[in-house]
Amino acid sequence: MSENELDKTMAYRFRSEEGGSAGETLVAVYAALKEKGYNPISQLVGYLLSGDPGYITNYRNARNLIRRFERDELIEELVTSYLEKGE
């Protein structure tokens, strides 16, 4: 490898074989929160702002599902989905 190749930052994204996309995960977590009687929007906002997984229920494995994604990936999915609806 040349010195220039060593200076480059490589991006690596890991996806579990059992999981879906960020959008599918958000929908599943939303449903789990709603089923447990939480306000899913408030809980998701709390998680996205703080990174504290305590905002997400363990019910239906929702906490583990959402933690497979970086928070910025989830926010990107939300913004993209919202803005593409308006087109």
From TrEMBL:
Lineage, uppermost ranks: Bacteria, Bacillati, Bacillota, Clostridia, Thermoanaerobacterales
Organism expressing this protein natively: Syntrophaceticus schinkii
Listed transmembrane segments: none
Family: Belongs to the UPF0297 family.
Protein name: UPF0297 protein SSCH_700040
Taxonomic superkingdom: Bacteria
PANTHER family documented for this protein: UPF0297 PROTEIN YRZL
